[in-house]
Amino acid sequence: MKKDAYQKIMEIIEGTAAKLVVVSKTRSVDQIRSFYDRGQRMFGENRVPELVEKHDALPGDIEWHLIGHLQTNKVKYIAGFVSLIHSVDSLRLLEEINKQAEKNNRKIAVLLQFKIAQEESKYGLDVTDLAGFQRTDYPWIIFRGVMGMASFVEDKTQITNEFRHLKTIFDDLKNNYFSEKNDFTEISMGMSGDYEIALAQGSTMLRVGSLVF
Ligand SMILES: *Cc1c(COP(=O)(O)O)cnc(C)c1O
User: Distance, CA 42 to ligand 1 centroid (Å)?
Assistant: First the structure.
């Protein structure tokens, strides 16, 4: 097989702490299966109905990640199987995930999504939103790390600074809230256009879609 973008990324991250989440939103079950057949197990979706449908149609050993904005009233549809929710952008959502996790009698792993881009439209927490945050308020949540999206710009310096900012937030949270936990380890940043910059700034989870399809 000709060396493609997927293979190239896999070679770059081989032997590092970084992992690749193949973002399969809008792609068909057959397209996902072709990555599955190459050994890929982590897939990311941004819409709940699509995630549920694909989960039902594809093998049970796939790790499904929810990467898009999640409405509180939809948590219940994915609580039974989701492997990682990247997009926790409010404490209200965190409360609902905690509640649905308990209902399903399974802990749910999450990333806290921070707003690092200049653009107005991006969802995400600001560090000040965590005032009063106590990890122990959420016994059914496993906090795995942070997630962020850089601005859609050409300026590599700006993207670098935004990713560096997320790494700083990660380090601060780790020190302040999770220092004695070994499961707060992930920095989800980097997409098709900026994954190399993200890796250089310490990304441990790339979310790449269009480049590999
Ligand atoms: C679509 C999407 C991606 C992947 O974007 P590509 O540019 O196709 O690699 C990554 N993260 C989120 C949150 C997305 O919605």
Answer: 14
